[in-house]
TrEMBL record:
This is Diaminopimelate decarboxylase. Keywords: Lyase, Pyridoxal phosphate. It is an enzyme of class 4 (lyase). It comes from the Bacteria. The active site is at residue 352. It comes from Saccharothrix ecbatanensis. PANTHER family: DIAMINOPIMELATE DECARBOXYLASE (PTHR43727), GROUP IV DECARBOXYLASE (PTHR43727:SF2). Its EC number is 4.1.1.20.
Length: 426
């Protein structure tokens, strides 16, 4: 709800900046800071072995200025849709810096990627391998792939488990022989891809995850006869979401991962294989703040309802899929002069559904109508992971800052156009 430690959680200058941007551009708006992206990029590089390839996962935030900042910092791009690929290329990534991932890639998507120059894919199943290979052969181009693996186990304690259970992600070890039987010249298997979990809570758990990943990677490389190439160990790097807090610092990770690579994947120092990681949340999570406005305060039964002009259509739409944090969103008031006794309240949005809840009942101070709230740490999986189309409301504005300079001020908008018929279909 409204953070009780708000006086310490947002600097006075930042409150003034956010309030001024709300006056200038309206509400709700997302404010992204490129200086925080740069800081996060440097921190992540410092926590990983030298010469590691790091992919920025555009699913976290595909805004072009943000992706461009990371391209300039030497990151590659992980994309999983035609839209993300378009954003990556617009941000300055070359096609040979992009890894195309995701389950359910259609022939049309693969065709579009190949036409854009993409030559490296992560394949999630035997059928996925066949589709990429068949489409590459039709284009008469030589393409490459990483085999994403769904191992039988992962380390305990991750935030969101991505493997070790029935999943659309990755090929199980028992299906590798089937994959070997359908290998085609048009799609060379050049590496492996393991992603065990995301938003891992502690550094110890993250190290344990990578230890399992290295072990599984070594087994799969032997089974598939891969020499050199790439070993993508995924991510799992954490960041706070929609509440005050700071990114974890991984002081022990670099040495720990280097040691496990020496044992499990000897030759990695010489690039055989090239070690890769990927991250979205840790790179951009703390760069974004949602500024919104209280439109109504009412009492329903014994609970005060604080209604905002931004709900799950603008933030945390994944809460509808059970991803709402136990404590809910914790907003920070831009006005420090809150008065009145704390009372039981809920933070809700403007949508016509009782599911539009950002924070359930808790005891808190209640802001006044027309006052502004800031939700910090929503640079990743905020706007672009929300229910943007529901109720056809205008989308929040997007302001990108570099220091005090406004780099861009835009709004995503829905468009409508004719549905083209596919060629050769009657």
């Amino acid at each position: 709800m409204v953070d009780d430690n708000y006086r310490a959680s947002l600097e006075a200058r930042e409150r003034e900046t956010l309030a001024a941007l709300r006056e200038r551009y309206g509400s709700p708006i997302y404010v992204y800071r490129l200086d925080r992206v740069r800081r996060a990029a440097a921190d992540l590089k410092a926590s990983l072995p030298d010469d590691a390839l790091i992919y920025y996962s555009l699913k976290a935030n595909p805004e072009v200025p943000i992706a461009a900042e990371l391209a300039g910092a030497g990151f590659s791009a992980e994309v999983s849709s035609a839209g993300e690929l378009t954003a990556a290329l617009a941000a300055g990534y070359r096609a040979d810096q992009c890894l195309y991932t995701g389950p359910g890639k259609t022939a049309e998507e693969i065709d579009n990627a190949l036409l854009a120059g993409i030559r490296l894919f992560s394949v999630e199943s035997v059928g996925d391998y066949r589709r990429v290979a068949r489409t590459a052969a039709a284009h008469a181009v030589q393409s490459r792939c990483l085999v994403r693996v769904n191992p039988e186990r992962g380390a305990a304690g991750t935030g969101l488990r991505m493997s070790g259970k029935p999943s659309q992600f990755g090929i199980e070890l028992g299906n590798l022989d089937e994959l070997m039987a359908v290998r085609q010249d048009s799609l060379d298997i050049v590496g492996t891809h393991v992603f065990l979990g995301t938003n891992v809570r502690t550094e110890e758990e993250l190290i344990a995850e990578f230890a399992v990943g290295v072990e599984v990677t070594a087994v799969v490389r032997r089974r598939l006869g891969i020499v050199g190439g790439q070993a993508n160990l995924g991510g799992g790097f954490a960041a706070p979401f929609a509440e005050p807090g700071t990114r974890p610092r991984y002081s022990a990770l670099r040495a720990a991962v280097s040691d496990m690579l020496h044992t499990g994947l000897p030759g990695w120092r010489e690039g055989a294989p090239r070690i890769a990681f990927e991250s979205g949340r840790a790179l951009v999570g703390d760069c974004g703040t949602l500024v919104c406005t209280v439109t109504d305060v009412k009492t329903s039964r014994s609970t005060t309802q604080v209604v905002l002009d931004a709900g799950t259509n603008a933030l945390g739409g994944m809460s509808g899929l059970g991803r709402l944090m136990p404590t809910g969103v914790r907003a920070v008031p831009l006005d420090l002069e809150l008065v009145g006794a704390p009372r039981e309240a809920a933070l809700v949005g403007p949508l016509c559904t009782p599911l539009d809840v950002l924070a359930r009942s808790r005891i808190t101070m209640v802001p006044d109508v027309d006052s502004a709230l800031a939700v910090p740490n929503v640079g990743a999986y905020g706007l672009h992971a929300s229910l943007l189309a529901f109720l056809s409301r205008p989308m929040p504005g997007i302001v990108v800052l570099d220091g005090d300079h406004v780099v861009s001020a835009e709004r995503l908008e829905f468009g409508r156009g004719p549905l083209a018929e596919r060629e050769g279909v009657r």
